[in-house]
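#struct-help
A.M.: can someone run this one for me? Single chain, 539 residues.
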Amino acid sequence: MKKYYTLLLFLLPHVLFAQHTWPEELIITPEKTNFEKTSTYKEVIDFLQSIQKLSKEVKVISMGKSLEGKEIPVAILSKSGIASAEEARKANAFVIYIQGNIHAGEVEGKETVMMLMRDILLGHKHYLLDNQVILFAPIYNTDSNDKMEKGRRPSQEDSPLEVGIRENSQGLDLNRDGIKQEALETQALFTNIITPWDPQVFVDLHTTNGTWHAYSLTWAPSYHYAGEYATYNYTNNVMLPALTESIHKKYGLRLGPYGDYSLSEGWPVKNFYTYNHHPRYLINQFSLRNRMAILSEAFAHERFYQRINSTRAFVAEILEYTHQHAAEIRQVNKKAEDDAVRKVKEQAGKAKKGVRFKMISNEKLQHFLTYDYTGYKKEDGTTAWFRTGNIVEYNDVNYFDQFEATVETTIPSGYIIPAAFANIAAQLKKSGVTVTQLSKSATYSGEVFIIEKFSKAERKFEGHFMATAEGKYTSATRKFKKGDYLVTMDQPLTNLILYMLEPQSDDGLITWNFFDDYIEKQGVNNKLVEYPVFKYYKK
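D.P.: on it. Structure tokens below:
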């Protein structure tokens, strides 16, 4: 006889989710274990298989396989039966993609996704499918999820008792792989989800590493640096403030912008810093793709059930917002895309874009919530700080969440890549860029970049000695051959192309060593070397 379980979870001053009775197979591991354990890979797969049997409005597909051969499941939720990217395009469907477990020690998103699947497919949130297709990827880092041990994340205080590891089985951080795309998971994500499905909104679910602010969850948009302003402005200044207000009103949870502070700067807190702008971070790349993205960071120092609670509330409210504002979001994204292409057509050879940036503060946070600290003077004259346990508010905290260009470059009409550099063309294609080949010889006028200095980091990062090129552009006319690669800039991913191909970019293909062999064989630093990618303004 089938067993049913009635759950009334997360009883707070405001009731977060309605009571419901679920079949036994839909009760997830944290619920079964008093929130002492997180779900294994098999338990996630079993849940997905079970819910497919109970609803015709979900289809589970595989994004691809990990190094250890595990399928990376994606659940497609659609009231109209859409089960492929092609069907979504034909229906002009609004698509949102929500991902958990990119870091396998940060498991709240994994559990949240399964809970919300119950609520949407079989419960009181079924209406969320009225006008959107939801893609849920609960366990993106499949291999590392089950490599569980105690003490992996001390800030979580063994809640749950054991969690997996951060990197994938290739030893790579999946959230630093957006440009180089060396991880099998990243390649699968771009090839089978991001490029074909083209989600209007991308949501990545994390847990912080330990700063003792006092928000149940912090968030960040896809940052504006080299992208168009429209998507960042809407996400950061319209959607996220609205979500923060509604979640506090409905659920009694306090949310705020993502960041960290350093006690080395003294106390009370004066500065709060977000993370880097680089498009290697999946969230940030969406600014260059003319789409919206949201980073969710549950508060590490709350208990496991509380972190699930806040993550679940945040994701549920995001889906409420996209349900109500789908047309508006699509319109903003289209404006960003049109603006990016128009800028190339009207201002190529004139307008400039940043390719290196520094973090700055143009904003002061008011009523900033944090745990308080007290200090004492040590014998050497320095101050040691200890957390008191009291939650306080501070005003006029400098928030470093803006990025100012330190190096700019002129927007071209396009780039020419010699046929010998097929790997560069292939890397662009992985990201969804349109690349063609010349059908006959042609002459182009533009600029070549002369590398005067080429340096590499002394320590490895994600398996790479990060590279930096210094030099200058000089005017040139070049004849190119049939088979050379042509990348025109009047296409939607124009800002991503610029960031990947510009030689002085702080997160481009030079950064990730794609040109090392060529540059080093040319004897750089002993003589001037011409960067092989040609920037053209006219044919």
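A.M.: thanks! Residues 163 and 243 are 29 Å apart (CA to CA).
D.P.: also worth noting: The two ends are 74 Å apart (CA to CA).
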